[in-house]
Protein: Thiamine biosynthesis protein, ThiH
Amino acid sequence: MLINHEYIYKILEETKNPSNEQIKDVLKRAKNREGLDYKDIAILLQAEDENDLKEIYSLAGEIKKDIYGKRVVVFAPLYVSDYCVNNCVYCGYKRDNSFNRRRLTMDEVAQEVKILEQMGHKRLALELGEDPVNAPIEYVLECLDTIYKTQNNNGEIRRVNVNIAATTVENYKLLKEKGIGTYILFQETYHKPTYDKMHPKSLKGDYNYHLTAFDRAIKAGIDDVGAGVLFGLADPRFEVLGLMMHNAHLEEKFGVGFHTISVPRLQPAKGVTLENYPHLLDDKMFKKIVAILRIAVPFTGLILSTRETPAMRKELLKYGVSQISAGSSTGVGGYKEREKGKETKQFETNDERSPIEILKELLSDGYIPSYCTACYRKGRTGDRFMSLAKSGNIKYVCEPNALMTLLEFTLDYGDEELYKKSLEIIDKEVENIEREDIKTLTKESMEKMKKGQRDFYL
Ligand code: SAM
Structure:
């Protein structure tokens, strides 16, 4: 089996109560970028001592700064259908929940997209439940067409990542043809006995079919895949090692692993309380996991959603998170309904701030919020992206692109306060661009933007 359960149990047992020296040794090798094996990761996962944890956070922070600089990518989810044939125990969309289900018409999709564009979004994650009759692949493809062609004044969506249920190579090919960004699918849990319990009698109930979805997606030509675990279902240490094995499998077979990893924690939802979940992830373990993922897979983006509070998001940005959602609604038609004050959510969220409020905090904390979609539009995907990232050369394009998209947001959607904060950081950071040719190009593009031109990227 791709996820070797016996082996995971064995190394978790062998690395119980690691000594201070063992942890220091792993961190030293991680610092030298020597690559960590499963046992090393298990050692870090079982570190409990506060001083050891501080060292883990500090190394994760250093790695993050080295690779991602001050950039934080911002996006929003778009829910288009809550029809679902599955009965996932933890999910508000489960078929046993009775409520008025619906899918958006194309006019409604366009309406949602316009609201998102008005918030300044350029990157979306398309979300829907699994229902081959009420929301077949043709519906998803139509949504993608609608999203990409819906323009609002100076706004347009430039990259759509797609989170739909595991499907066939043929269907992944169709998604690829529509120009999707990352194909996202959370394994939910790598622990098969828990997976079986959480997905009773349903299409999603086939653990192996779900686990091999990325193999089919990559075979179909999709370069970037985004993984995730729904933390709270099974032992989080098992889940992290499961993620690492899955990633290693893709690296071995296709030469490139996950483009991103999401770290959702279980939230209350319709018909879902958190009472019967013995493995809920507490804050301490959660922070440790984010830091360890940053250390273990430095070049894989880490995504944090509005399931988390503003305080937790602020803290985890320090240890490794590189992408956050902002201004999200997790209900079908939720952006329009929110305006009317009646939104039905897939699960509860804990950061209700608007993108502009979030951007202001990011800027105050010294980050550069980025709406960049350049890599995907320039064909820097899959192994081409990874080799650029690993050589360190990616920063020559990421930094200017982040600054240019921040300026674009500020000009189009900012208020006076944002303008002041953004320009302060943009003017300073543009001078720090190392390559003179790129610095000049960036400055010239920014002047053109101030005169009304848009969408510059390297
Ligand atoms: N239908 C797709 C699938 O089967 O993968 C998309 C799923 S859903 C729209 C997106 C994700 O929300 C799920 O993969 C799951 O991890 C997460 N989710 C479901 N219920 C949740 C809950 N109660 N709390 C937090 N996240 C939840």
